[in-house]
Amino acid sequence: MKLFLITLVAILFVLFHISSVNSLPIERRGGSGGTFSGEGTFFTVGLGSCGETSKDSDLVVALSSSKMSSGKNCGKKIKAKGTKGDVTATVVDTCPACAEDDIDFSIGAFKSIGSMAAGRIKISWEFE
Fold this sequence. Notes:
The chain is an alpha/beta fold. It has helices at 2-22, 65-68, 107-113; strands at residues 36-43, 60-64, 77-81, 86-95, 103-106, 121-127. It has a six-stranded mixed beta barrel with strand order 1-5-2-4-3-6. The radius of gyration is 22 Å and the shape is elongated. The model is unreliable at 18-31 (pLDDT under 50). InterPro entries: Expansin_CellWall, RlpA-like_sf.
């Protein structure tokens, strides 16, 4: 009887901990999941909020303050599609003036997805 109770308690203990582990949220690689739609603009890069200095020819972007998640998305890759094509770029900066799903692209990255003359284009994008 004593062995039965010890075994029962041990099984319940294991089952309880397995159910706790299964209920933990799983974060998708790259942070926030899904495809986002917004507007793309370009900016002259330099020292970004992630602490890296970039050149205009680098394929880098600045995300809105809310998408930066207090710097958690620094260094992550995004894939964006615009009117001219698509580009994969690295998150290096924050765009305080951007709406939540908008992206500010380096000149090099923007040229891959849209016309510089347009200045602002519709985009869709996701974390890789």
